[in-house]
Amino acid sequence: MKTIKLIALGVLLTASFNCKDFKEGLKQGMEDAKAEAEAAKEMEEKEMAVESITFKMEAKSESNVTGEVTFTEDGGTVSMTAMLTGLTTGEHAIHIHDKADCSSADGKSTGGHWNPTSTPHGKWGAEEGYHKGDIGNFMADAEGNATVTFATDEWCIGCDDDTKNIVGKGVIVHQGVDDFTSQPSGAAGARVSCTGIIQ
After folding, report:
1. Which residues 6+ apart lie within 8 Å of 168 measured at CB?
2. Which residues pair with 73 in a beta bridge?
3. If you average pLDDT over each of 2-6, 37-41, 180-184, which comes out highest?
């Protein structure tokens, strides 16, 4: 009888310890699940955050080219939409330049093309290389109006990566066409409109 009581006591003690371990494990599991849910929510909110900045384009080089350009970052991709008026009919070039400085009458205060990776000028995506500011050419209609759209994951708005961050750069519309071969600018001619990308 004594042996049976000792066995019963042992079973109860084991069950008690197992129950305690189970409760602690359950508590830890719930805490881990809560932490994972909070991390997932934070990541989702970060991914859902959309940043958009818009700037007025200013006429340069005695032109009448004005408008506005909007940059929107969503899910790691930056989209640009430029709406322009006052252009001559036909094809023109648009680039991102090195400085957000439109103070000079000819727009040259923006410096050269934005080229943080020190590559040759070229058409966007070219194997031989291209500047991060080499957006390309667009068409203006018979009334001198144009809408330019462009999107890339090689830009960001205000991030810590200097090879991607467009803040502090300038947008330039040229009178001529980018030939994608002349170095370092594509021989696109006069700078007829300008804005600075400033947060």
Report:
1. 99, 100, 197, 198
2. 51, 78
3. 180-184
Are residue 119 and residue 60 in the same domain, yes or no? yes
pLDDT reported for residue 6: 43
Task: Please enumerate in sequence order all residues whose Cβ is within 8 A of that of 186, keeping only pairs 6 or more positions apart, or say none.
Answer: 93, 95, 121, 134, 178, 179, 180
* Whether residue 131 sits in one domain with residue 78: yes
One domain for residues 178 and 120: yes
Same domain? 56 vs 68: yes
Report pLDDT digits (tens) over 100-154. Answer: 999 999 999 999 999 999 998 888 888 888 899 989 999 999 999 999 999 999 9
Same domain, 120 and 171: yes
Range of the domain at 32: 1-49
Q: Are the beta carbons of 69 and 171 closer than 8 angstroms?
A: yes
Nearest to 193 by CA among 55, 61, 104: 61
Instruction: Please check whether residues 62 and 36 belong to one and the same domain.
Output: no
Residue with tokens 């506005």: 68
Query: What is the rounded CA–CA span in Å between residue 104 and residue 109?
Result: 6
149 and 64 in a common domain: yes
Alpha carbon distances (Å) from 21 to 11, 29, 34 = 15, 12, 20
